Amino acid sequence: MAIIAYKYRLYPTKKQIAQLHWTLDRCRELYNAALQERRDAYRMCNVSITYYDQAMQLPDIKELREEYHDIYSQVLQDVLRRVDKAFTAFFKRCKHGKTPGYPRFQGKGRYDSFTYPQAGFSVTHDNRVCLAKIGSIKVKLHRPIQGKVKTCTIKREGDHWYVVFVCEVKITAFLESKETVGIDLGLLHFATLSTGETIENPRYLRHAETKLKKLQQALARKKRGSNRRKKAVQRIAKQHRTIRNQRQDFLHKASRTLVNAYGLIVMEDLQIANLSKRPKPKQDEEGTYLPNGASAKAGLNKSICDAGWGLFQQYCAYKAANAGRTMLLVDPRNTSQRCSSCGKLVKKELRERWHSCECGCSLDRDHNAAINILWLGLNIFWLGRSHQA
Questions:
Q1: Which one of 114, 164, 315, 326 is separated from 155 by 20 to 30 angstroms, measured CA to CA?
Q2: What's the pLDDT tens digit per position in 284-299?
Q3: E strands along 52-134, which residues?
């Protein structure tokens, strides 16, 4: 069984939009109050409050705040679970020595969803979603819902509303494939395969930069707090949403094509967060700051984030798991420098895009790297099979 999320666009009426906004605001208030209670209890009494402690208080809260009677009870319980998950993740990061990031209060523009975790929702035959305490909302079911629906989440994105059904779906067996491929991710080409094929980089953010620049300039001219400024913010959010949707559509289609064609997919285990870090400042003996190439690195970082390598690897990983395929991540060290024919290290600078070796091997640098990545993956794969035997 696999867990799959189905996301659909909602088309609420003006009255329903007001009700959805109102529900979000009440959920946000409860989230912040639960967070404040946990902070105060630990700071003043050194006591840790659990989810169950706060859930037991919900009937009393409804006595004091009658408006909470107009929100489905399981939605309120899920808000408290969300607070509990935030603290659980915080303590986990502390335990592993990572930057903790204490759970923060949610402002009006940061709390954008609420969830029906078990019941209180249904889908009708006439393409409508019935939500307890809210009503029936029109939905565009652009593809059928499969499996057993576990949860229903209502999500706000700018001025659009969506419903997300998380379903438990039985995995469909794919035809077995013995084809293997190594993939080198890059910026000149989005991906170069060990077969020599390339997937071109669409660069959606770069192509939309001119329009985004004009929208940002228009926003800067608007008076703070005015309705015109709010509309300008919505236009910018809409443009970013379009870019995100284009990128995700491209990555979904590219990953689906690869998973359908190959039984073993090998990629580099890239540390994308480290690759896109800004350079450290440089200072001389007198403390004067020196040029450190931050401007050029900022452009490179933007291109890395625009490509969406991490999301592409995630899509390939879960699609491969659902299809019964194998995906491996290998150490990227020297994959571009090592000759795929003889194994000798041939040092090249980043601007050198062609690999030439004394053994006579001559091919594109990224193609050479993709072949090396495939060999590394095959060694790991067959080593694992031999241990299992």
A1: 315
A2: 888 888 888 888 888 8
A3: 113-116, 121-123, 128-131
